[in-house]
């Protein structure tokens, strides 16, 4: 077995754990906290809740919320200016992937200088970042756990992936009660992002015994709880989904992801397609493409999804993929890429972008831009 | 579900990973490294290997090896003096639980002052410790992962357990090649310590979904690899045991342990009984005692040990306990406490010590000192 690394943040998990935000910030030496969130989270009332927790401990803070889905490079730059002007020293993000990834971008630039695009790719970060406490209000990105941040370069219309151990937050506070304001529609895309994390990290060539445990745990919990959670939005199921998200997060931050993420990043950068929606459309197609390179592992995935083994590894794997397609139909969400992207002429450019995505390095099967174009067509 | 915390160090795992010791120390800002090991590890040649790795990168270091099994308070004090005199700034431990626990004790006192006994119990540490890089040469203690350190107070003849998040090393470098110089006799006690970690963390009242995964993974790997590993001492099995040890380590550092550890600590403090040997004698007895309080979980344990389920939870659990007793006989190690402790008159005092052990707080079933005495007698 090759040498591998495994790093995760410190976790605080549980209903009501939002109240620990002040203690965590204090422990990390905060004198002024830079709080990053977005308008949606604000509307749900969580920003005010968090700020109340900080106020109750007389903690000083600055609030920044110029964050959009698929967060942009200029939103990082604006945040950096505010952080520096206000002389903040601890970064706290509250929200989904967008505020958390923006917060990481800001933390990176205030400590390392330059522009966010200077750090695209893996291991480009030199200096340690200011302490980070991240509080997710949804699942999917697991940016509160991961060494990833994904920021859109507006000029190139490319979603840049930045990977560095320094991007792992110090503390992740995961309070399942915060999932309680999500609607069914808001919850579906992150669930598919988590499914993609579990599957892609498991078949990654750099998967290891420590990540495999979490990939399978995450997948198992997702499969068990997606249907009941979406039907009733009950806290018990939401809590299990939060655990599932964290599980696949611990897997993919250390084993990375593959082709599916490369394809989804490219659609996000060019057409602003919601990341999780891209996965719901692409995951089965990508799994079928990767199958020849990892039959045994895909069979294990199939076994978890369907709850049984079929005649051969390949049959078991294919049954799993088919079951994912059935789930998608059952949920009544788009099943074809054309439903959200009527014009397919730009998919050729999307393929050229995708093949350069850093996640291609950790896919179990190689793919040319033409292979990728065929996959897009298959999903279209 | 209650709020829970989950923290682990950064891991570097794999054959040959010892060579990363320098990079890790540098990353933590080392200008002079305080290396702690013991005569046995030195004799096996690993200390020289590590020092060569440090020399190759021109890293300055001080070497300290006045460490015995069940390490003593005065060994911590002597280390503190040397650390301060030499103005070291990063602590590196190489060895089993004894050098690692001693190193933690030293790190604690140089940053927090006072005497080691001032910090007995949970959460008594105020200041952050100097950066720690730990390299285990055996399994069992998992001090390279855990927030525990156990130091013997010679005056009271008590093994003090200290628990604090600050005692988690920054980086754990686990190189399975280092297990290659262990003999069968050296390997058996740590294997039993790991078994006890897996079992006790799983039934702990503060177990949570994140720790349960690791308890079961550790137990499963131990059961699969103990026999072949002890027969051939082949690196492939040793590597799996190292993963098993780390797995149960990640579980117990966050879920703690119970009665079995309280009993073992007491025997260690009073009679210098090797910690893992105590577990090999006590574990089945402790499991039977705890069974009424956690039948379902003990059945899961039994299922993993025996590979099947019996009629009821209780039967499955009992089959697992019986299988552990068979394993012990098969290995030809002592099966009765009397074999290593001919006089049982002091067991009453040992019970009084055990009932005060902090691990009693996380046992699923309460026990008085008389219950404990009966358990000692049962094992005797």
UniProtKB/TrEMBL annotation, chains A, B:
Keyword Oxidoreductase tagged: yes
Highest taxon above the source species: Bacteria
Swiss-Prot/TrEMBL keywords: Oxidoreductase
Example GO molecular function: alcohol dehydrogenase (NAD+) activity
InterPro entries: ADH_Fe/GldA, ADH_Fe_C, Alcohol_dehydrogenase_Fe
Annotated Alcohol dehydrogenase iron-type/glycerol dehydrogenase GldA domain residues: 10-176
Pfam families named in the record: ADH_Fe_C, Fe-ADH
Location of the Fe-containing alcohol dehydrogenase-like C-terminal domain: 193-379
UniProt similarity note: Belongs to the iron-containing alcohol dehydrogenase family.
Protein name: Iron-containing alcohol dehydrogenase
Organism of derivation: Pseudodesulfovibrio cashew
